[in-house]
Write a structure and sequence with these properties.
Rossmann fold; 2 domains; five-stranded antiparallel sheet; 20 strands; elongated
Length: 362
């Protein structure tokens, strides 16, 4: 296994920075997921680690050794892509051992390793079948088996589950996490699917506009985002983001006639006394309906609806519609008042989008 370090990595394609000054370290045996929207630079970063793309500047290091000039074959990596590329004319066993035969590994060693990956990936019943006879999830397992049979120092996965139907994807997601822990191989995984990132990663590297936004454990990136992008990209439904305008006595919610004051809302004093515009970030799970009539300073409720076992409601501030969760046992339509959970309130600088606390809002 290997520790991977990126030092000020930049990739410039004819004036466009696909990767812009990226630095991080992936620990030996760690499962790190690169997450972000399409075009944010995550796949280009992965291909730099693999040796398939040359860095314009900066360094890629394996266990402290600079590998910029080494080819992909010299880096002892294995890579699995979004679309499985198995040899259709070869049986599954022949597909799996192909890399070993190409390297001239002795037959006895090939047989030993085939037995090992067959047991790990539970492929015993499929070895004598052809790829076309397998469902998509099983074909992806074969591609993974072919990758790890080489004992790579690093396993690189580029959206490996996105081409699989949802019914197989959930199962494969669990199996992939289990297999990585069993194998202990350093793994870097690229996806735009936050569910995959949150369920698989030891740490998430969130990227946007070719740069790293935040590197955190999944729960930390969900509850403690560093800026508006991180707060809204992670989570479904997305984080509510409401303008807070400083007025006499408190903060007005956007273009509404609702003002949050220390007498009516449990907001921190530093926020209520802020002299510059803020944005309030609060996830739907931290917005509730409480019983009681709507009155002065309350936020009107628009609709209440169910999605499976969850019951949501919508409320409007100005021209924007937001969501909350109705956890009341005695549910009575849209009757009730909107209440924010003080522990779930986040504040962002309206100009920069960065998280702020007491000292930063003055």
């Amino acid at each position: 296994m290997a520790e991977i370090s990126l030092k000020n990595l930049t990739v410039d394609f004819a004036g466009f920075k696909a990767v812009d000054d990226v630095s991080l370290t992936v620990k030996d045996g760690e499962f790190v997921v690169y997450l972000g929207p399409s075009g944010c630079g995550k796949t280009t970063t992965l291909r730099c680690i693999a040796g398939l793309v040359n860095a314009t500047s900066g360094d890629v290091l394996f266990d402290g050794k600079r590998v910029n000039e080494l080819s992909a074959s010299e880096r002892n990596i294995a890579m699995v892509f979004q679309f499985v590329s198995l040899y259709p004319h070869l049986k599954i066993r022949e597909n799996i051992v192909f890399p070993l035969k190409a390297r001239g590994v002795p037959r006895a060693e090939i047989a030993r390793k085939l037995d090992w990956v067959t047991d790990v990936f539970k492929l015993g019943d499929e070895l004598d079948r052809y790829p076309s006879a397998l469902p998509p999830g099983a074909r992806q397992k074969v591609a993974l088996a072919r990758a790890v049979i080489r004992d790579p120092a690093v396993l690189l996965l580029d959206e490996p589950l996105s081409a699989i139907d949802e019914q197989f994807r959930e199962e494969m997601r669990w199996e992939l996490g289990h297999l990585q822990r069993q194998l202990g191989v350093t793994t870097i995984y690229v996806t735009h699917d936050q569910r995959e990132a949150m369920s698989l990663a030891d740490r998430i590297v969130l990227m946007n506009n070719s740069r790293i936004v935040q590197i955190s454990e999944p729960d930390r990136i969900f509850f403690d985002p560093v800026d508006i992008f991180a707060g809204q990209f992670i989570g479904s439904p997305s984080m509510n983001l409401i303008d807070l305008v400083p007025v006499s006595g408190g903060l007005r919610l956007g273009d509404s006639d609702v003002t949050l004051t220390v007498d009516h809302h449990d907001l921190p004093e530093w926020a209520l006394s802020s002299r510059k515009p803020l944005k309030l970030g609060v996830r739907p799970l931290n917005v509730h309906l409480v019983d009681g009539p709507q009155g002065g300073g309350s936020i009107p409720v628009d609709d209440v609806f169910s999605v499976g076992r969850e019951r949501f409601f919508t409320f409007t501030v100005g021209d924007n519609v937001y969501q909350g969760v109705d956890k009341r046992t005695n549910r009575s339509g849209t009757e009730g008042r909107v209440s924010f959970d003080p522990a779930g309130l986040l504040f962002f600088d309206a100009a920069t989008g960065r998280r702020v606390d007491g000292g930063a809002a003055e």
